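Technical note accompanying the year-one report. For the benefit of new consortium partners, we illustrate the data format agreed upon in the data management plan: each record pairs a sequence with a structure-token string. No post-processing was applied to the example shown here.
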Amino acid sequence: MVRQLGLLSVGNGSPGPTLPECHVLIELAGESPLTITRLAERLAVDKSTMSRTVGRLGRRGLVEASVKAADKRAKLVCLTPKGRRQVRRIDRQADRQVAAALELLAPADQAAVVEGLELYAKALTRSRAQRDFIVRPIRRSDNAALARLIRGVMREYGIADDPCAADGTEVDAMFEAYQRDRWAYFVVARGRRVVGGGGIGPLEGADDSICELRKMYFLPEARGLGLGRTLLDTCLATARELGYRTCYLETAGSMGEAHRLYERAGFRERKTPLGKTVYTSCERRFAMAL
């Protein structure tokens, strides 16, 4: 796509704006004014690069900057009338370029291209967002934050009365609970803040080839970013390393996002339970061969 759209030949004697400049103009056409800091965040570049780009656009009369009244150090950038005319030219050229290619495709293929690009854009957004998070083994210092997280999420889904939430022995001392043979627990952290967690351990009442996916919960801020699959894959890989051949879980019927995650990962729903769990609010059961 880069080659066919000629993006590597930007400059090429053309008097028009460069590709980065085009993106700044397009952002300002959608919302104006914006600070240089906000523009840099939108386009994922550093502030100094954005300052230089805005400076070039200003010298060509396409944007103008003014000092923000509340903060003398922050400059507000907006389009000039000349800049708005340039954006309209950019839009027309882009529309012609894309339309010329799509017209060579059948309607069904056009729809497939649009759907594929939308899916890819969503995946890139999640990938970028994940950079702020890490998955790591639990530490003793995580205990208090995890206890609040687990109980908070269970209240959110209306299952706070379940014994697995009320049992302070495990929930209040998660690090100690998982320092046993063939047990493991991982947290998802954003800096020092714990935003999710999940682990595995032997399934009570079952043979030693079956493990249970245990206490996998996320705060709202960490949902929808693909972190659930990353954490789940970490738990399943660890289960394989520890010699388990089946992973089992029970979950509440209200946790629809979790059900879809498990099914996409390869879990299959069961009508009958495995082992001897004590959960009272977990109406759905899943298992997966490892």
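Partners are asked to follow this layout when depositing records. The beta strands are 34-35, 63-68, 71-79, 134-137, 184-190, 193-202, 210-218, 246-251, 268-270, 284-289.
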